[in-house]
Amino acid sequence: MAQTVSNPKYREIKDGFYWTQECLPLGTLSELDRFDMSKWIGADEEVHGCQNAYLLDGEQSLLFDTLTQPNGDQVVDLLDDLLDGDDLDYLVISHPEANHAGNTFTILEAYPEATLLVPGEAAGHGTGHGTEHELYHIATDTPEDVSELANEIRYIGDGDTVDLGGYTVEFHRPVVADHSFTLWMTEHTTNTLFTVDWMGFLHQSSNCVSYVHELDREVTVEQVFRFHALAFPWLRFSDVEAIERGVADVRERFDPDIVAPAHGMVTTENPGQYMDLFTEAAAYLSEEGEHENMQSKLEYILRPPTEA
Known about the structure:
Blueprint: E1 9-14, E2 17-25, E3 47-57, E4 61-64, H1 72-83, E5 90-92, H2 98-101, H3 104-110, E6 115-119, H4 130-135, E7 153-156, E8 161-163, E9 168-172, E10 184-187, E11 192-196, E12 203-204, H5 221-231, H6 240-253, E13 258-261, H7 271-288, H8 291-302
Helix pairs in contact: 5-7, 6-7
């Protein structure tokens, strides 16, 4: 089955607050012993992974992430429609990874007055991300190999805010460990937390651009487990108690009414329930990294050739 990214779809969460989504069919998934796939996916349904970006359009407009390069022209067309001919004022990339930042320059070329907001060197976990800036051509205000771009480029960090008039966004270091060099975002008016890669999960092909409470079946631990096993393989070696403390910190610091992830569905009802699913999935993942399991896997991978 050919894997083709779908054209972006969208829905309006609040007045001027748009969720855009593209999906990738994942084909047939292997069965996992600890889970029952029939609880969340029917035999005749496709499994999708998804990529989300979010547009906030107040007196000024801001796009958070860019979707992927196969949809570059379609993203610009969609922005033109949603902005009704107005300019895009800000483009934010949560972190310089292709499926988050892939259309950065396509969008900037279409909106030369837009300001590009990129994570500063103190973003994410730890410091010293200069090399990543250089790799993604955002090291200076006028990158040498994209000098034709007229856009202002501004570094942002933990606690920085942007008032859009009607919407106000604030940027945060990830509380639960996310990829290096990532910034989360909140929107104050709607009390939305944009969790980037954290809180992603797979979904049924019939449920694209659906709120979590609208899905045909309740979200299962398996859906969350499968996504995070791919996105964060190091969770196999994580301290589950530390993960639990991180999730508790998210609840205490943000207590969001809406959770808007980059790779899952938007949650508008009882977000804490899905944080609990992540905690449970992380516990299962940590078992994969226990000594006995890793030892058996290494013995299989490193076993000597069978003698003839």
